[in-house]
């Protein structure tokens, strides 16, 4: 419920960050300007005593994030994949947020399963383990079906998780609203729309029936992808709070020591993770949008296994083509074309200078091509990208948030496996293949054929539709040029006209009040 009580939650967030020491750790890690660090200190210090204490055995950032709750843990999971942004030490500390959070009691999980599935754990499973993984939304148990002996993974939502998320998101709405009111320059970032997008994503994640559907669709799309596997859901044992799917063994992609001990090629794995994401986004328009190491494993044969399908992204065909052209322009170092695509898609306002924008993009692209990945400061690069978006008045595109977020996470996972990876060289074959099949001459013919099929469905109705349109146009022109006629009851009509004007005035007043 949105309201003033959320001010308390925001104050407590700042106080917790200050009390645990997380604020200074995080701001230093991302190389925040001294002025921002001082502002954060001044805002948090007076309320420090109100902050949550957290688990004192944990490092400051992890301690604060786990104390604040699930919505903050989501943010921490993203940071855990980017040692090039927050540093290797902090990234390693935050990795526990991926799947090693404190679990809730197994007895409670059994109770939820009984209520949600309408069957007891003892009747359904011959074995049911303690939690083997626990994250912000749910925890996973290893089990064996009594009837068939099949090993399965049983995912159970945390008790009260929906209410906990609702509280956090309501506070985020309040913060976004005040940000837009007090800092007009922030409106181009559309903070309220971003929170609304996050809200919709979370609501889908809290219904495991939707995750089961996502897993089934993703498995169908990727069934022929070499070196990639998706566990399939067991529908009769899945419901809103419980999801059961195939058990698949593997090592976490974060466990580089075990991967090396198994004799697997980490460079090849890094390239495959990035190429699989691009293939799913461009080829299928449907991709896993939470690809941190806690949701990715690799078996002894080098096959990558994906888990947790609560957050999935979709791209329509037009957006996929725009995205591919932008990537291809960077790969070819054709910054002018990259700039043109941004303008054509409406990502940059039409009144800005396209050549200046192309020059700004060159500053982004050239260092990545000419320098070893280990020497690139991603924190500085991201700061510069933010400057570019501000300089050219670029607004946040909510339809691209999941894509951009996942790209950041996937690149971080790939860099963890292979710190020297060249993302452009790895991306090139996937993007070129999509360009050939979707933007070349064959694509033009295919688009024309699709258009013809649509028109053919409406073929029998086209003459009537055209005739109706022409009749409406003729009637409109007749009304426009016809001489005015004096009404018979002029007093009544004048009264109605005055009333209409009054209503129009009220309506205009309301509209202006909304914008002022």
UniProtKB/TrEMBL annotation:
Keywords: Cell inner membrane, Cell membrane, Membrane, Transmembrane, Transmembrane helix, Ubiquinone biosynthesis. The keyword Transmembrane applies. Residues 97-342 form the ABC1 atypical kinase-like domain. Pathway: Cofactor biosynthesis; ubiquinone biosynthesis [regulation]. Pfam families: ABC1. Belongs to the protein kinase superfamily. ADCK protein kinase family. This is 2-polyprenylphenol 6-hydroxylase. The lineage of its organism: Bacteria, Pseudomonadati, Pseudomonadota, Alphaproteobacteria, Rhodobacterales.
């Amino acid at each position: 419920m949105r309201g003033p009580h959320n001010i308390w939650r925001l104050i407590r967030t700042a106080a917790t960050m200050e009390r645990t020491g997380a604020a200074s750790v995080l701001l230093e890690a991302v190389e925040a300007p001294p002025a921002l660090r001082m502002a954060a200190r001044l805002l948090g210090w007076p309320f420090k005593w109100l902050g949550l204490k957290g688990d004192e055995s944990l490092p400051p950032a992890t301690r604060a994030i786990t104390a604040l709750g699930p919505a903050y843990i989501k943010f921490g999971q993203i940071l855990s994949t980017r040692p090039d942004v927050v540093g290797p030490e902090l990234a390693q500390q935050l990795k526990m947020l991926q799947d090693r959070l404190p679990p809730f009691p197994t007895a409670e999980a059994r109770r939820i399963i009984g209520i949600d599935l309408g069957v007891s754990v003892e009747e359904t499973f011959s074995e049911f383990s303690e939690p083997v993984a626990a994250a912000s939304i749910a925890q996973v148990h290893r089990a064996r079906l009594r009837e068939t002996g099949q090993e399965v993974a049983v995912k159970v939502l945390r008790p009260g998780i929906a209410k906990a998320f609702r509280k956090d998101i309501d506070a985020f709405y309040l913060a976004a609203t005040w940000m837009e009111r007090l800092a007009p320059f922030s409106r181009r970032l559309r903070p309220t729309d971003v929170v609304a997008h996050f809200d919709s994503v979370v609501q889908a994640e809290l219904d495991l029936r939707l995750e089961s559907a996502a897993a089934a669709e993703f498995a169908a799309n990727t069934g022929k992808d070499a070196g990639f596997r998706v566990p399939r859901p067991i529908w009769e044992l899945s419901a809103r709070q419980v999801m059961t799917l195939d058990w698949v063994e593997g090592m976490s992609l974060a466990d580089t020591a075990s991967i090396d001990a198994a004799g697997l090629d980490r460079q090849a794995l890094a390239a495959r993770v990035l190429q699989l994401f691009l293939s799913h986004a461009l080829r299928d328009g449907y991709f896993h949008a939470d690809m941190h190491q806690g949701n990715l494993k690799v078996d002894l044969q080098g096959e990558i296994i994906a888990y947790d399908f609560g957050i999935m992204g979709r791209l329509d065909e037009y957006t996929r083509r725009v995205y591919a052209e932008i990537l291809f322009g960077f790969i070819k170092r054709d910054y002018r074309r990259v700039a043109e695509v941004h303008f054509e898609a409406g990502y940059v306002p039409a009144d800005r200078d396209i050549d200046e924008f192309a020059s700004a993009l060159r500053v982004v692209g050239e260092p990545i091509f000419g320098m070893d990945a280990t020497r690139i400061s991603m924190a500085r690069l991201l700061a510069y990208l933010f400057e570019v978006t501000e300089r050219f008045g670029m607004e946040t595109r909510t339809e691209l948030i999941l894509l951009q977020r996942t790209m950041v996470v996937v690149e971080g996972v790939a860099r963890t496996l292979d710190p020297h990876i060249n993302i452009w060289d790895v991306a090139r074959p996937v993007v070129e293949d999509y360009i050939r099949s979707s933007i070349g001459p064959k694509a033009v013919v295919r688009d024309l054929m699709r258009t013809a099929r649509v028109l053919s469905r409406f073929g029998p109705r086209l003459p009537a539709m055209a005739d109706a349109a022409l009749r409406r146009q003729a009637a409109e022109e007749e009304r426009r040029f016809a001489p005015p006629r004096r009404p018979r009851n002029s007093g009544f009509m004048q009264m109605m006209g005055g009333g209409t004007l009054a209503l129009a005035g009220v309506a205009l007043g309301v509209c202006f009040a909304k914008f002022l």
